[in-house]
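Feature request, filed as a ticket because there's no other form

It would be nice if the structure record came with a short human-readable summary line next to the tokens. Right now we just get the raw output. Example of a typical job, pasted below so the devs can see what we mean:
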Amino acid sequence: MSVLQRKAQAGKKEHQARAMTVPKALRVSLAKVADTDFDMAMVVIGITQECCDGSDLEEKLDDTHLMMLMDGPAGTTAGAMVGPELVGAMIQQQTTGSVGQTAPEPRSLTATDAALCAPLVDGLFKRAYSLLDAKDDRELLAPFEFGARVESARLFALALDAQEYTLIKLTVDVAGGAFQSGLMLLLPVPGTHAEEPIEPSDPLGEPVPPKRNLGSSMMAVNADLTAVLGRLRLPLSKIKGFAVGDVLTLRPDAFDTVEIVSITGRTIRKGVMGQMDGQRAIQLEAPKSAKISKPGGDTGATLADLPDSGALASLDPAEPEGLPDLPSFDAQPDEGGLPELPDLPDLPDLDGPGDTESSEETPDLPDLPDLPDLPDLPDLPDLDSDDLPPLDDLPDIKTA
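Raw output as currently delivered:
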């Protein structure tokens, strides 16, 4: 090795030592995100990286961990698996404001746990991605975001459809040495994610129709519906005599009472026949369970209880045959239209307050008897102060 080669190699090692790799970016970012966003002490004390084939991914998963799918650019999907101790610490910090000195008891993890831990994982991906310099590293550690929680390791492995993954395992110290937990990122290797399948072909070169799932099969089933404009009851003899050009008279409101009938003859819905964009169309009526909201907030009657406004709007005022028969009112009493009212008897005149002739006389009150004279009261004797008892024996009254 020449002197120039040794100098170049030494410079390369020094540059690599200063460069921000994926493990270093994750170590720095996790501590920063935990401190800034959650006010938590969290340090990465160990980190490993390995490659794994997509078919062997299920062996690396653990059902006791919180498994989250992460959505990335161009339809790629990554994964994050958070240890139960770290999940418990995140819950304690966000609910009580502090983390206990012992690891939380193991329990079944829920979607609420995923929602509370998702900001930590999202912030980790976003900050670590901004620190990377190399193009390959930025393609590997793309800014993934939380997509969904998966309940089992089998479903988690099926959702990760890339051919090869890079597994980065982080050993995390929580709350200044209180306990440790794990965080594993499953990153798809760029260029190995599943692509659209190529349509198979038979040996003759003709394309084979793709396999249908239950949803597409149900949507491909034909549903025959018949619109019934009206129903007539005719004798069989008249039906036998039908010929081309015969006209059947329907009810005037036939287009307003169209019935949608299934292949079994059951009426599914009713509606009004019309046209839209030059094509025949049927406007279905609302179901009977639909309620009308009144301005006060009360629930009113159902739509079925209201009159059919479409039928009234389609009637021609010049042709009253379609209108229902209404009782006629005649404004001429002498022709027998309205009944005559009997004459009311005359009321007697009311007397005013000054008219006393017609009012009954007020009876006179009897005279009160005279009261007898009361006798005079005798004069009271004069009081002599010598007759009063002496007051020397009374005690003194203290006023203060």
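Something like this underneath would help us a lot:
The CA atoms of residues 253 and 356 lie 75 Å apart.
The longest strand covers residues 42-53.
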